[in-house]
């Protein structure tokens, strides 16, 4: 078990490129972590990491070793899980996703999953900015929009309706657009969900209209765009998930209901591919089933 711990520690040092950060994660001091990795290198008879005052860099041998031990550690997790009474998951599950989908949709759905696996620790990394998923040892990343890498191991977990919304106060002051083209006469709130080409592409029967709009107010997080629209700063295009609460309580109103916008695919990415731990696959199965139940109940 000591050797397995050394391997797990090595994967964290390699991905974080930092002994101190990896040591903190594993409950060690930096000197303890350095000694364990040095002993591992001595046993293997090869240098795995190049250490400088500024960085820790994988050697060629270290990179090859990392790629070989990832599936082995995943298989060990699977073996432990297969013989564990009751099937409870343990250890750490790292997930990455935008803040809005986490707080509004995912976290509320995790309570029943956690109840089944009380010894499983979950770490959520939130934000709309890109992230190095492999370096941060993310088991599952939920991303909205088209697949950036078509070769990635991913699963479609839901397709979210897209809506165009504004607050009642804004509509009282500026009126509601009667056609997509009329949006050019309105103040626009921009955010990650409204920055993609399909955000303002409307269809109705055989008609299709794409409107090019410049934002009067911009934020780099979708939650901020919804808050700005609710405050009366303008019109925004976002996912229904991101503003379901506001549509329900009347602080936002859906515009142009006769026109359709392309839905937003939500994918679960598995950065480690086939080496993804059982907990990563299990939480995705749980979310997919819950999203399907929710969609059926809303029909």
Description:
- By secondary structure, the chain is an alpha+beta fold.
- Among the domains are: 1-83, Arc Repressor Mutant, subunit A (Orthogonal Bundle); 162-262, 3-Layer(aba) Sandwich (D-Maltodextrin-Binding Protein, domain 2), CATH 3.40.190.
- Helices cover 41% and strands 21% of the residues.
- The protein is built from ten helices and 15 strands.
- The strands form five sheets. It has a five-stranded mixed sheet. Strands 12-7-13 form a three-stranded antiparallel sheet. A three-stranded antiparallel sheet has the order 10-9-14, with no helix packed on it.
- A hairpin with a 2-residue loop joins strand 9 (201-204) and strand 10 (207-210).
- Helix 1 packs across helix 4 (60-83).
- The longest helix is centred in the first third of the chain and has 24 residues, at 60-83.
- The radius of gyration is 23 Å and the shape is elongated.
- The model has no long low-confidence stretch (mean pLDDT 87).
How would you sum up this structure in a few lines?
The protein has 10 helices and 15 strands.
The tally of beta strands, per DSSP, is: 15
Number of helices: 10
What does the overall shape look like?
Answer: elongated
Highest-level CATH class of the domain at 162-262? Alpha Beta
Task: Classify the fold: give the CATH topology of the domain at 162-262.
Answer: D-Maltodextrin-Binding Protein, domain 2
Query: Can you tell me the residue ranges where pLDDT is under 50 for at least 5 consecutive residues?
Result: none
Q: Strands of the biggest beta sheet: in what spatial order?
A: 4-3-5-15-6
Instruction: Kindly estimate the percentage of residues that lie in beta strands according to DSSP.
Output: 15-25%
CATH architecture of the domain at 162-262: 3-Layer(aba) Sandwich
Radius of gyration over alpha carbons? 23 Å
State the helical fraction: 40-55%
Look at the structure and give the mean pLDDT: 87
Strand and helix order: HHHEEHEHHEEEEHEEEEHEHEEEH
Gap between N and C termini, in Å? 51 Å
| Class inferred from helices and paired strands | alpha+beta
Largest sheet: 5 strands, mixed
